[in-house]
Amino acid sequence: MSSLSKGALVQHASLGLGKVVAVEANAVHVFFPGSDRRQAAKLRWPLASPLLRTEGLARDAWLEGLSSFAMDPASGRYALAENWLSHDDAVAEFLAHSPGGFAAATRSGRPARWRAVAAAWTARLGDGQGEALLADGNLPELVRRFREAERLVSRIPATLEDGGLRQALASPDAARAWFEALFDVLATAVPGRARFERLFAASSGLGAPAGGAWPLATVFPFLAHPGREVFLLPRTARAAAERLGCDLRYDADPNWTTYATLRDFAVRLLDRLRPMGAAD
After folding, report:
1. Whole-number Å distance between alpha carbons of 16 and 53
2. Angle at 77 (CA atoms; ends 76, 80), nearest 5 degrees
3. DSSP strands (E only) in 84-234
4. Of 46, 62, 83, 231, whose CB is crowded by the most CB atoms within 10 A?
5. Burial of 125 from C-beta contacts in 10 A (0-12 / 13-18 / 19+)
């Protein structure tokens, strides 16, 4: 038992590859995706020991990323959400809606709108234009251009509400701190935790309404680098991640743990969807 720990991958003689969800004194809970069940199997210890091995297993990023398991007191089993979908089932639902896959879906609708907004962002604020305005102290023009971007995003259903940025950036000092933190993130090829935490703190300092700080903190990095960053809309992101088995470790205040978890989840998902034409 001491050789097994929560999160480890194991190979069962008959159940296949699984992930250890929890370890108890007399049992180990293992989720086996091949079973097509959302519940983890409860294996008695030490009886299960001869059936499990941990050596020589290839990594499985998707299985390792499944994390939203909760204990059901009635059954004593750990399980994913009741509305959990396996990756294959999720792909089947998507193809039923978009038979041509991502290649066809990106030519119109929401993907096309996002690409148009990203192009407008680059034209108005890319190539150092935003940083130059900030360096010149021209906050009114900088706010105006950001509000133009906000207005374009707000036309995409279920994203931002137009006008929230004007209120958030009403204080020049708070606005300047936010712009500085944002451009610091955008100017770095691989921004790390410290830069994002500064941006998240500045975003919280804007006094956005409940649920509004996350979109303000993440939409502009996403517009600038859609292949690298993610846009976190709390309700949508939490529902989607939970249904696919990922616990975002969500907190209403923007924070690195939640953001990094979502970004890692998005990377794993993109990797699995590339064969269907997913690009970013």
Report:
1. 10
2. 140
3. none
4. 231
5. buried
Residue 254 identity (one-letter amino acid):
P
pLDDT tens for residues 189-237? Answer: 889 999 999 999 999 888 877 678 899 999 999 999 988 999 999 999 9
Q: How far are the Cα atoms of 28, 67, 187, 247, 266 from residue 61, in angstroms, in the given order?
A: 21, 12, 29, 15, 12
- 64 near 274, Cβ under 8 Å? no
Residue type present at position 260 = A
Residue recorded with tokens 């374009």: 152
d(CA 204, CA 261): 19
Tens of pLDDT, residue by residue over 80-130, are 998 898 888 888 888 888 877 777 665 567 888 899 999 999 999 999 999
Tell me which amino acid residue 189 is.
Answer: A
Rounded to whole angstroms, the Cα distance separating 200 from 255 reads 6
CA–CA separation, 194 and 181 (whole Å): 10
Q: Where does residue 277 rank: exposed (0-12), middle (13-18), buried (19+ CB within 10 A)?
A: middle
Instruction: Give strand pairing partners of 22.
Output: 29
Q: Name every residue whose Cβ is closer than 8 Å to that of residue 82 and which is 6 or more positions away in sequence.
A: 38
| Whether 121 contacts 114, CB under 8 Å | no
139-154 vs 213-224: helix axis angle to the nearest 10?
Answer: 90
Instruction: Give the Cα separation of 163 and 150 in Å (integer).
Output: 8
Q: What is the DSSP letter of 208?
A: P
Full-model pTM: 0.86
**196 three-class SS:** helix
Q: Residue 143's closest CA among 182, 106, 113, 198?
A: 182
- Alpha helices by DSSP H, listed for the chain, are 61-65, 87-97, 101-105, 109-125, 129-135, 139-154, 164-168, 172-186, 193-204, 213-224, 234-243, 256-273
